[in-house]
Amino acid sequence: MPLNIDLHCHSFFSGDGVSSPEQLIAAAKAKGLNGFAITDHNTCDCVSYLLDKGLMRADGLPVDGFLILPGVEVTTADGHLLCIGATLPNLKGTPAIDVCKIIHEHGGLAIPPHPYDLFRAGIRQSTLELIDIDAIEVFNAATTFKRYNRQAFEYAQMRGLPMTAGSDAHHEAAIGTAYTILNTDDFSLKGILAQILKSNELNQKYMSPKDSLRKTWNNWLRLRRKRRHVPVKNAQ
Fold first, then answer.
1. Is residue 71 part of a domain?
2. How far is 163 from 169, CA to CA, in rounded Å?
3. What is the pLDDT of residues 148-172, one digit of tens each?
4. Measured between alpha carbons, how far is 37 from 46 in angstroms, rounded to an integer?
5. Which residues have C-beta within 8 Å of that of residue 220, sequence separation ≥ 6?
6. Measuring CA to CA, how many Å separate 199 from each of 84, 183, 192?
7. Which residues contact residue 96 at a Cβ distance below 8 angstroms, ignoring those fewer than 6 apart?
């Protein structure tokens, strides 16, 4: 069963995201996605929010036929690194080699996004050679220059790494621009993580100029106050 999953998305819990989790879900469903990974910058507050709202399950099963994967985009000391399938503490500034180890200790996959992108903190090849990654994002819909995606693809081929694609959406209109098609009958977090490690088809489409401009504008607003979520405590 082919499942269309966007493996790189941001909500308003990222400093440069603008859309609510509910808006992302509605837009993703409207575009025919079966799910997405929420990968906000250096925070997993959106995961706590989704669990509290009943839009995501702690056991990794879909809600109303739609699956959201926990994750985070860590700003390591060496560049950005996606954790897919787990939540992490704030590891901003931690060396990438150590972040990879922590991701694996938490049961997640370590996937460098937009490597080679000189303008967006992509991890450089010299560092990629040293870290224990599970796959590599070879198509980012918001990459600064298309050649960066080609370089990532060539590197993945050289190392025999699984490949992923993601929209890097920071607002609901861009979600699902690019995504990974995962062919598995196990529609669960466990099944998706296992399939990512295999060969998968990629839907490769770039953001429109309008969406790219909007994302760039949001990046300039990174210093604005981030949203926070206080998890609901169970009644005693």
1. yes
2. 18
3. 999 999 999 999 999 999 999 999 9
4. 11
5. none
6. 17, 9, 12
7. 76, 77, 78, 79, 81, 123, 127, 131
Residue 4, pLDDT > 50, answer yes
CATH at residue 119: 3.20.20.140
- Domain membership of residue 48 (yes or no) is yes
For the segment 135-141, the average pLDDT, to the nearest whole number, is 98
> Is residue 137 a part of any domain in this protein?
yes
Cβ contacts of 109 within 8 Å, gap of 6 or more: 82, 83, 84, 85, 103, 134, 135, 193, 196, 197
The owner of tokens 């959406």 is 169
User: Span 54-71, mean pLDDT?
Assistant: 98
- Res 218 pLDDT > 90: no
Q: How far is CA 104 from CA 23, 215, 235, in A?
A: 30, 30, 32
Task: Give the amino acid at 35.
Answer: G
> Please, is 114 exposed, middle or buried when counting C-beta atoms within 10 Å of its C-beta (0-12, 13-18, 19+)?
buried
DSSP string, 95-108: -HHHHHHHHHHTT-
Q: Domain range spanning residue 85?
A: 2-220
Structural domain total, the chain: 1
Give 173-184 pLDDT, tens digit per residue. Answer: 999 999 999 999
Assigned token pair, 92: 């901003």
What is the C-alpha to C-alpha distance for residues 8 and 38, in angstroms, rounded to an integer? 7
**What's the confidence (pLDDT) of residue 235?**
41
End-to-end CA distance of the chain: 42
Asked whether residue 228 is domain-assigned, the answer is: no
* % of the chain at pLDDT higher than 90: 85
